[in-house]
Design goal:
Strand order of the largest sheet: 1-7-8-4-3-5
Oligomer: single chain
Structural class: alpha+beta
Helix content: 25-40%
Number of strands: 8
Shape: globular
Radius of gyration: 17 Å
Order of helices and strands: EEHEEHHEEHEEHH
């Protein structure tokens, strides 16, 4: 499977529809399904989109790590799953985002362009951010280089 890379700016229309970038749609078409699972990120003010097969693998791994008879684990899985929804792009490559999902992208910041968004590739999935929120979260080049060096260093 090809990987989701880059960042692509898009706009939401008045109904909350956005075009999934053509390159991302091509990668999605390589799989068995056009369906995408969207979930609010647990740590950041962004939405994460998974090809359905990748989502199923991630959820299976989470479920296997949890005790189905433990009430805390049950609640954890329930809440994780309840923040997700299945989307299927229309014939023009658009997906419809509910207003509450678009609102979660602001991270408390006021924005001048309420419709401007940016897709960011994440290898086997991709994220959707408000550009200014994403820019505020990004590491500067020096910090990025240092963190990558540390992670890639073999002991």
């Amino acid at each position: 499977m090809s990987t989701f890379i880059g960042n692509i700016e898009v706009k939401a229309d008045e109904k909350g529809r956005i075009f999934v970038p053509a390159g991302y749609r091509k990668i999605l078409a390589e799989g068995d399904s056009r369906r995408i699972v969207m979930r609010r990120d647990t740590d950041n003010a962004c939405l994460i989109f998974y090809p359905e097969q990748v989502w199923n693998e991630k959820v299976s791994a989470l479920r296997n790590a949890l005790d189905e008879w433990d009430p805390e684990d049950q609640l954890l899985l329930m809440q994780f799953m309840s923040d997700a929804e299945i989307l299927e792009p229309d014939n023009q490559g658009r997906i419809l985002l509910q207003k509450r999902n678009l609102e979660c992208l602001n991270d408390g910041q006021t924005t001048s362009d309420s419709n401007g968004l940016v897709f960011v590739g994440m290898y086997d999935r991709f994220a959707l951010w408000k550009p200014e929120v994403y820019a505020a979260k990004k590491l500067d080049q020096k910090d990025l280089a240092e963190r990558i060096r540390r992670r890639m260093k073999k002991d």
